[in-house]
């Protein structure tokens, strides 16, 4: 027994030492040049090998986890084009990876200005990751892949000249093979990857497009006969913005804010409801007139989305009965001295919170309305009136909803109903929190690793099941009273929620090509857009994320100049995903779009899949900001998403605007098809 104990004691440190603590514990890396010696002007190949150890693996660049930064200046100038080596295998979750040694080859040319001697060439900025079954490790950025190259003196010898008078004999060509052109690897949307350029250069390219842009009369002017038509239009935009996925989940915030107001007098409740609605009008109206761009950027800020997700979880726990949310005692005492102004303070902050949370979906409609106003030279006074019309229409339903809880609470036997409503709203807020956490991770990680589409969809299914079981009295929460039976209304709602959960379940299953199954119907399309579905590698339309390159491609087309269809979009834009999945994928629309050169400009952050070697997060965000500024400057202050425009590049460098599609979420597919067809006729 003592010998066994000593053996275990000796073996424990050895076993502990096998636990991976660094990149070197899971993989080896080597880098060499072939040939190892070269003269200025000669071609060399930088070979970088990752050799995963037992039960470890690494990734192809298509996953975004390995990213190579190739120098374009210095002693060796590299070509930005390269491909991932073959041999990647799908893991259980469908993500491709390498489990054995894999070598990337990067072709470069020794610079004509390179001096003779030994040179160490490093791929600074490269990100390399290797994992085992416990965790993942990144290669230390301070020690990037480095290989030594000896630059020989002299230059590449030119080919021998033909002596004067000598006859030049061309060697016979025996069925020469066709020239092989290797296209760049496709992006996650079926497009062409590009080499990274500096944000300043990207901005300069877009400014050049603006300088050469000629408006083509694409706008539909607002009738100038009456300001009332403009105000009605603004109100219509406000009402339409209510029918969005991230506004409806916020309704519980409005209701829960007033659940405790039932003991107040009707006049006090009316006062609180008025303050709540006026605060929404002030916040939304001010943002529409002054800081639309700033608020929209905040609405997609990952840290704000994390904060909003946490806030919703706190609200849900309160609605479940875990605790009550109340202002600090000193604030209550202070507001009591101010004749109950504490209630107003809570109302104001609740309205501000709702306005900020809902801005993710409201901003596109604000952008469309503001762009229309700017393009028609509406006066400042008219713009203020229009912004107030938009905000008032948006806030008007919440004035009624703010009064509704008190009216319910005064009805006979309404206590149990209120407890049920509170609990169900708590479930809804949990589902909304998942959406905000996913939105945040989409901005922080690409692709997502934690709040994936599958996880959030599973969470939504669980929420629907628990809500249905709760309504069936299968379990109770702390504030519930024991009930021997349930009403018909609860039974019908429970059946609907459980049926909804079953309807969503096929979305968790995969098809043979690794894609999520999609239940039929508009309901799943809305849920999918709400949760922001994952990109599907290798499918979709051939999008180009560089507008200047797309315009050049259209000019140089072998069958004559083509039109460029520009899609302004965002990584967290729900209506963008909805249009891509349910409109662009239809055969008749797909066929029309493929007759254009397609440019897709992200205005929040460019996905890494659009690059050979993705630049830093800051550069991708700066490039997206330049796209957003271009949209605003080129299209009359329009900042709505999605936004579609068609451009016609001319041989002299000018660019003519052929048309723009004013509807964000495409509700009329036939009208969108007619828009594309009419543009093609103008070609």
UniProtKB/TrEMBL annotation:
The name this protein goes by in its record: Thiol:disulfide interchange protein DsbD 2
Cellular compartment(s): Membrane
Membrane topology category: Multi-pass membrane protein
Alphabetical keyword list: Cytochrome c-type biogenesis, Membrane, Signal, Transmembrane, Transmembrane helix
Transmembrane domains' residue ranges: 227-251, 272-294, 306-332, 344-369, 381-404, 450-471, 491-509
Lineage summary: Bacteria, Pseudomonadati, Planctomycetota, Planctomycetia, Gemmatales
One Pfam family cited in the UniProt record for this chain: DsbD_TM
Organism: Limnoglobus roseus
Swiss-Prot/TrEMBL GO biological process terms: cell redox homeostasis; cytochrome complex assembly
Gene Ontology MF terms: protein-disulfide reductase activity
């Amino acid at each position: 027994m003592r010998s066994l104990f000593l053996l275990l004691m000796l073996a424990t440190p050895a076993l502990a030492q096998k636990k991976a603590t660094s990149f070197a514990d899971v993989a080896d890396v080597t880098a060499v040049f072939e040939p190892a010696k070269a003269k200025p002007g000669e071609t060399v190949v930088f070979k970088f090998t990752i050799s995963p150890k037992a039960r470890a693996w690494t990734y192809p660049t298509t996953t975004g986890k390995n990213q190579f930064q190739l120098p374009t200046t210095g002693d060796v100038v590299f070509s930005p084009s390269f491909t991932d080596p073959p041999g990647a295998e799908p893991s259980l979750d469908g993500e491709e990876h390498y489990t054995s040694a894999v070598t990337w080859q990067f072709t470069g040319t020794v610079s004509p200005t390179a001096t003779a001697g030994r040179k160490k060439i490093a791929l600074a900025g490269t990100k390399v990751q290797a994992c085992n079954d416990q965790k993942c490790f990144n290669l230390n950025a301070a020690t990037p892949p480095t290989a030594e190259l000896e630059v020989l003196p002299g230059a590449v010898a030119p080919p021998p000249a033909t002596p004067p008078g000598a006859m030049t004999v061309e060697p016979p060509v025996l069925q020469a093979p066709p020239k092989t052109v290797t296209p760049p690897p496709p992006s996650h949307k079926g497009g062409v990857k590009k080499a990274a350029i500096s944000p300043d250069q990207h901005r300069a390219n877009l400014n050049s497009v603006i300088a050469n842009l000629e408006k083509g009369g694409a706008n539909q002017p607002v009738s100038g006969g009456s300001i009332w038509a403009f105000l009605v239009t603004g109100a219509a935009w406000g009402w339409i913005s209510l029918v969005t996925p991230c506004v409806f989940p916020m309704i519980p915030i409005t209701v829960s804010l007033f659940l405790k107001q039932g003991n107040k007098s009707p006049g006090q409740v009316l006062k609180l409801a008025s303050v709540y609605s006026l605060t929404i009008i002030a916040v939304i109206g001010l943002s529409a007139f002054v800081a639309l761009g700033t608020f929209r950027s905040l609405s997609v800020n990952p840290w704000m989305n994390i904060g909003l997700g946490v806030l919703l979880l706190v609200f849900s726990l309160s609605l479940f009965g875990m605790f009550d949310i109340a202002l600090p005692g000193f604030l209550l005492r202070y507001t009591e001295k101010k004749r109950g102004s504490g209630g107003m303070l809570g109302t104001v902050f609740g309205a501000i919170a709702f306005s900020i949370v809902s801005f993710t979906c409201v901003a596109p409609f604000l952008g469309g309305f503001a762009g229309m106003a700017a393009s028609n030279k509406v006066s400042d006074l008219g713009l203020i009136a229009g912004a107030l019309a938009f905000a008032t229409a948006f806030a008007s339903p919440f004035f009624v909803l703010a009064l509704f809880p008190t009216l319910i609470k005064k009805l006979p036997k309404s206590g149990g109903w209120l407890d049920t409503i509170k609990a169900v709203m708590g479930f809804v807020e949990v589902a909304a929190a998942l959406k905000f956490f996913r939105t945040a991770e989409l901005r922080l990680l690409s692709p997502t690793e934690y709040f994936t589409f599958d996880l959030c969809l599973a969470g939504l299914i669980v929420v629907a099941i628990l809500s249905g079981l709760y309504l069936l009295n299968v379990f109770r929460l702390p504030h519930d009273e024991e009930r021997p039976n349930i009403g018909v209304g609860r039974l019908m709602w429970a059946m609907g929620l459980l049926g909804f959960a079953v309807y969503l379940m096929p979305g968790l299953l995969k098809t043979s090509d690794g894609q999520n199954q999609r239940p039929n119907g508009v309901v799943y399309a809305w849920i999918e857009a709400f949760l922001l579905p994952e990109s599907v590698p290798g499918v979709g339309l051939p999008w180009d994320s560089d507008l200047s390159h797309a315009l050049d491609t259209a000019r140089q087309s072998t069958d004559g100049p083509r039109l460029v269809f520009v899609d302004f979009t965002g990584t967290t834009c729900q209506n963008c995903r909805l249009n891509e999945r349910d409109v662009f994928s239809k055969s008749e629309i797909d066929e029309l779009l493929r007759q254009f050169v397609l440019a897709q400009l992200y205005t929040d952050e460019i996905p890494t899949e659009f690059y050979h070697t993705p630049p830093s997060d800051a550069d991708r965000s700066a490039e997206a900001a330049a796209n957003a500024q271009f949209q605003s400057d080129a299209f009359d202050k329009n900042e709505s998403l999605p936004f579609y425009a068609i451009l016609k590049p001319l041989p002299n460098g000018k660019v003519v605007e052929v048309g723009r599609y004013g509807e964000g979420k495409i509700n009329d597919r036939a009208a969108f098809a007619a828009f594309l067809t009419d543009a093609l006729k103008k070609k």
